[in-house]
């Protein structure tokens, strides 16, 4: 039996913690003992000082995946789709670069993030055929890892493929499927899939927190692209997010008793699991649209979300029958979430969130097995051994670094927890401690780095030795830089983008890419930026020939 929650006290604590972390606002929903409570603190808009309320609508980011997974399971209940049938059964034209992988991938692989398909879907646009285009655009997408080999979170692509299966199977667009199958039957009036459909008078404005001194800064990007819809574009309130949790706590039924999915579907979603290489950051297993956590021996189902400048957390505790939702217009900030939820959980007499493990100073590791470069499109990590300690260096996209107010390369010391797990801390008060895994050793070298649920394979850079300067005369500035952003996310494996600068008038640009030949860079660059600029290419004999650092 849970203890009653002192809502005024919790609201006051929430207000204090928001101020401490410089987050403008948050709303909380708590379901316990069959009763729900909601409260809010802070302002939904810093400029207008309008207070956040329990009716304020936030973007819930990747918690959208849990909504999409639940709707998909309705189709499973109806026999329209099956979890272990190849995707090609429903999408005959489905192709990726590896023919065997294309034939093997199933909806279950997509739901639990084990398909291994690289997030390489180009720009599918913002029209109603966006998910159809995404599927068509991945015909050349490589495998980050073999199908089913390891867990590696797919931010957008995996659930977009599921959405396309839903569209073909149900004869409607994904947005309409979600409305008709979930939002209307659940009685939700504030939840939808399109940011432009949110009542602007109720919508929270998103903010970046780059430093505690600076405080919240309006985000230049108001929402994720439509490609992220099934995996990131649901907007809702804390109370309506609790309704989703209610379905999982009550064998697939809505609060009014309406059957949303069968008890078997809920059982399948929660018990079909794969191990997560880093078990500490979120949880040791991933189910179908849910993270599975272990809080001091109790199973907890969860999902987190981040939509550029808004964040969401959902935790479902089946044993005591508790669920907690939180939506905020900044983040995500793990330290803030832990403080808020632990106060609520303690007040309810429920288990609290386990702390991250401490490093083991007695461990003696062969550091050479971890050293190397690990990369996915748009993200690169270099692990090096320096003075007997491992360091992880993160190279940021130059535009991302500018947006976040950070240097283009971050350096963190890794403290070993085990022979595959490490704790990464930072002097920056806004960077929470994180754990990561470097694992799957083959021939004396680890093959993968798993951080923030994403998997990054080790890359072979033996061929990436030629520094190419691409000097562009720009004819369409917006088109050029948008194409550059897209190109950065689709760099060939082993290539590095070391510079992206423009003249003050925006008519000229210089980009430096390290790859295996000038022809390879020319072909890659022209494919993306060719329509927006005339570019000349110059090969350098060494990094210093173009004034770049040697390391």
Supply database-style keywords.
single chain; alpha+beta; eight-stranded antiparallel β-sheet; 14 helices
Task: Walk me through this protein's architecture.
- With 551 residues, the chain is an alpha+beta fold.
- The protein is built from 14 helices and 25 strands.
- The strands form five sheets. The protein has a nine-stranded antiparallel β-sheet, with helices on both faces. Strands 14-15-16-17-18-19-20-21 form an eight-stranded antiparallel β-sheet, with no helix packed on it. It has a four-stranded antiparallel β-sheet with strand order 23-24-22-25.
- A hairpin with a 4-residue loop joins strand 11 and strand 12.
- The longest helix is centred in the N-terminal third of the chain and has 15 residues.
- It is globular, with a radius of gyration of 23 Å.
- The C terminus is likely disordered.
Tell me the overall shape: globular
Number of helices: 14
Query: Which regions contain 5 or more consecutive residues with pLDDT less than 50?
Result: 543-551
User: Which whole number gives the mean pLDDT?
Assistant: 92
**Can you summarize the main beta sheet?**
9 strands, antiparallel
Rg, rounded, reads: 23 Å
Strand fraction band? 25-35%
Q: Please state how the strands of the largest beta sheet are arranged side by side.
A: 3-2-1-13-12-11-10-9-8
How many strands appear in the DSSP assignment?
A: 25
Q: Helices and strands: which structural class? A: alpha+beta
User: Helical percent range?
Assistant: 25-40%
Q: Distance N terminus to C terminus?
A: 60 Å
């Amino acid at each position: 039996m849970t203890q009653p929650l002192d809502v005024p006290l919790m609201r006051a604590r929430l207000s204090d913690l928001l101020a401490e972390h410089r987050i403008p606002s948050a709303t909380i929903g708590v379901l316990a003992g069959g009763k729900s409570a909601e409260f809010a603190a802070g302002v939904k808009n810093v400029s207008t000082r309008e207070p956040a309320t329990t009716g304020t609508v936030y973007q819930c980011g990747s918690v959208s995946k849990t909504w999409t997974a639940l709707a998909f399971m309705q189709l499973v209940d109806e026999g329209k789709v099956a979890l272990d049938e190849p995707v090609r059964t429903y999408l005959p034209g489905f192709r990726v670069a590896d023919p065997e992988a294309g034939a093997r991938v199933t909806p279950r692989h997509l739901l639990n993030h084990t398909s291994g398909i690289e997030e390489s879907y180009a720009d599918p646009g913002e029209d109603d055929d966006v998910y159809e285009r995404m599927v068509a655009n991945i015909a050349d997408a490589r495998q980050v890892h073999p199908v089913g080999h390891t867990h590696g979170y797919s931010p957008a692509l995996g659930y977009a493929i599921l959405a396309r299966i839903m569209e073909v199977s149900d004869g409607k667009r994904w947005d309409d499927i979600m409305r008709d199958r979930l939002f209307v039957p659940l009685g939700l009036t504030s939840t939808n899939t399109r940011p432009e459909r949110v009542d602007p008078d109720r919508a929270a404005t998103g903010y970046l927190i780059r430093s505690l001194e600076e405080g919240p800064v309006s985000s230049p990007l108001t929402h994720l692209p439509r490609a992220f819809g099934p995996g990131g574009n649901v907007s809702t309130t804390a109370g309506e997010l609790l309704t989703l949790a209610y379905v999982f706590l009550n064998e697939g039924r809505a609060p009014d008793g309406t059957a949303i999915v069968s008890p078997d579907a809920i059982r399948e979603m929660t018990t079909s699991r794969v191990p997560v290489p880093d078990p500490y950051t979120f949880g040791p297993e991933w189910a179908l649209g849910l993270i599975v956590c272990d809080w001091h021996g109790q199973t907890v189902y969860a999902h987190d979300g981040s939509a550029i400048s808004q964040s969401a957390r959902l935790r479902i505790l089946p044993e005591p029958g508790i669920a907690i939702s939180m939506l905020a217009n900044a983040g995500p900030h793990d330290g803030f979430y832990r403080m808020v939820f632990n106060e609520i959980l303690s007040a309810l007499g429920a288990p609290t969130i386990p702390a991250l493990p401490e490093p083991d100073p007695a461990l003696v590791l062969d550091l050479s097995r971890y050293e190397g470069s690990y990369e996915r499109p748009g993200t690169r990590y270099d692990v090096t051994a320096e003075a007997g300690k491992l360091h992880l260096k993160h190279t940021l996209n130059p535009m991302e670094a500018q947006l976040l107010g950070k240097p283009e390369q971050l350096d963190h010391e890794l403290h070993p927890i085990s022979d595959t797990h490490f704790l990464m801390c930072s002097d920056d008060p806004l960077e929470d401690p994180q754990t990561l895994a470097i694992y799957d050793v083959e021939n004396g070298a680890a093959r993968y780095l798993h951080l923030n649920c994403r998997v990054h394979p080790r890359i072979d850079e033996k061929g990436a030795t030629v520094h190419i300067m691409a000097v562009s005369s720009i004819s369409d500035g917006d088109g050029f830089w948008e194409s550059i952003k897209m190109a950065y996310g689709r760099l060939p494996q082993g290539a590095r983008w070391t510079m992206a600068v423009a003249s003050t008038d925006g008519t000229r640009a210089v980009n430096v890419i390290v790859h295996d030949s000038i022809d390879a860079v020319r072909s890659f660059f022209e494919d993306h930026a060719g329509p927006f600029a005339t570019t000349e290419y110059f090969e350098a004999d060494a990094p210093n020939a173009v004034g770049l650092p040697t390391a």
